Amino acid sequence: MSINDIQDEIIAEFSDFDDWMDRYSLLIEMGNNLEPFPSEDRTDQNLIDGCQSKVWFTAELKNGQIIYKGDSDALLVKGIVALLIRVLSGHTADEILESDLYFIDQINLKEHLSPTRSNGLVAMLRQMRLYALTFKAKQTT
What we know:
single chain; mainly alpha
């Protein structure tokens, strides 16, 4: 499934709810369904700078695709982590770097986050793209 297909799926899921409290519940549920994050990966090296809550991300390259793992100590943020992993994990570095993550605007996510959480979202995306850039550079050397 392409990144855009996944984004369209998420937009459809969120459009089922008019009330943002229901959308927050959906995000929290996504976070609760996130694959458990290994405790040994909860290091300062994997901590995302710019997030109010603690957020950890790791990435590995498997068969040309980047597999992300992540976690947060805050329920809502953990849901955002799960959302980003759902969209970007399992794709190539080029696909990730060339993607336009329009779903964030389509579901009005940024508008319904506090300024610090919105900054955290940007920091998470920046780190995920940095991982993709790093893997791409390693593949071309």
